[in-house]
Design a protein that fits this description.
With 365 residues, the protein is an alpha/beta fold. Helix content is 43%, strand content 16%. Helix 5 packs parallel to helix 9 and helix 11 runs parallel beside helix 12 (308-318). Bound molecules: S-adenosylmethionine (SAM). GO terms for molecular function: carnosine N-methyltransferase activity.
């Protein structure tokens, strides 16, 4: 097999392992609860008695898992279509061994559904997406009909709500995402959900700690909170793939909007450079989020973690003019309001412009 065929096979096997992880969600989640029940069974008799009500709770959690699992076959039905059947196994060949990936890959998607497409997520969206949308609106025409030829890119789009909101305001907007779990579910929400509050899920059913009452773990949400189907004239799209591999053309975008994204690179400098390159002269980069540096401390990853001050210096050296910069924006990410543990980021928000005139020394790099 040549390299290209090897690459395609690897990609297809990975895609199949994503589907397999989704398919195993129900069994693996229930097995986990069964294991907990066995733990209780192994305890002294009086402890078992004292934990009787907790055992009942575990039983109810199983029902929530079942309810989450109902969504999966509906979503997977359409998964092959998303990539024009590129990953379909038309030779009928069985991949030797399709393993499953970590269970939390599916659990994260349930939480992201809360953030992007439920009423309960409205507060997080207000904190995180509104400042970006308001900045975009300030910079482009007031007339919604005059916005269509401004093209805006949202890399690391998750389940696509920010990109969708930008497109709904008349812009031509493209979300980009490389996580197949997100892509499979966002395709379903964006193209196939027909009704508001069509589905009910339990996003935190797999988080077992920090509740005042059993109900906290069973916090449910309905989605989608609005009917997201793009209209025929809407200029909204999603692309699949690594931002650094998909976007290589210079001077293409009027605006790049990043939310909780730039810290997803092992080398944030590469993201900043690429955003600079793909923006048109005069183009805008609007960013909001923390500096969690997702690759930090991961074995064999060449992760760099500059502080915000250092990052600002880098951004300016690359050529951007920083027009706005705020720190301390209180922002949450996929938080269960009923948990005793509440993470809140003091995020940074900044707006940078690629100058119209590129200095001669920059054009040589
Ligand atoms: C922390 S999440 C933020 C999602 C969304 N922007 C939000 O605020 O809810 C970061 C997203 O970026 C995606 N991502 C990370 N690195 C990426 C890359 N190189 N190319 C495309 N997507 C990427 C991840 O899969 C994830 O969905």
């Amino acid at each position: 097999m040549n390299n290209a065929m090897n690459g395609a096979k690897e990609e297809r096997d990975y895609f199949l392992s994503v589907l397999s992880t989704f398919k195993n969600y129900r069994e693996r989640s229930l097995n986990y609860i069964n294991y907990k029940e066995k733990c209780i069974e192994s305890l002294p008799h009086n402890h078992k008695e004292l934990l009787e009500k907790y055992k009942e709770d575990l039983n109810t959690y199983k029902k929530c898992v079942e309810k989450n699992a109902e969504l999966i076959p509906l979503v997977l039905q359409h998964a092959h279509k998303i990539f024009d059947n590129f990953y379909s196994n038309d030779e009928g060949e069985q991949p030797e061994k399709i393993g499953s990936l970590s269970d939390d890959r599916v659990q994260v998607v349930f939480k992201q559904l809360m953030r992007d497409w439920s009423d309960l997520g409205a507060n997080e969206r207000k904190q995180c997406y509104d400042p970006i949308i308001e900045e975009i609106l300030e910079n482009y025409p007031e007339d919604i009909n005059a916005r269509g030829h401004f093209n805006i890119l949202v890399p690391g789009a998750g389940l696509g709500r920010l990109a969708f909101e930008i497109a709904s305001r008349g812009f031509s907007c493209q979300g980009n995402e490389f996580n197949l779990f997100m892509l499979v579910v966002s395709y379903y929400v964006l193209n196939l959900c027909t009704d508001v509050d069509q589905y009910e899920i339990y996003p935190w059913i797999h988080q077992y700690c920090n509740y005042l009452k059993p109900d906290g773990q069973m916090t449910s949400v309905k989605f989608p909170d609005i009917k997201p189907s793009p209209t025929p004239d809407s200029k909204f799209s999603m692309t699949a793939g690594d931002f650094l591999e998909v976007y290589m053309d210079s001077d293409e975008w009027h605006c790049v909007a990043t939310c909780f994204f730039i810290d997803c690179a092992p080398n944030v400098v590469q993201f900043v450079e690429r955003i600079y390159m793909i923006l048109k002269p005069g183009g805008l980069w609007v960013n909001l989020g923390p500096l969690m540096y997702h690759y930090s401390g991961i074995h064999n990853e060449k992760s760099v973690e500059p502080s915000f001050e250092r990052l600002c210096e880098i951004i300016k050296k690359i050529g951007f003019v920083m027009e706005k910069c705020k720190t301390g924006l209180k922002t949450k990410y996929c938080q269960n309001p009923q948990s005793m543990l509440q993470y809140e980021y003091d995020s940074v928000f900044f707006v940078c412009r690629k100058p119209i005139e590129v200095k001669p020394e920059e054009s040589m790099t």
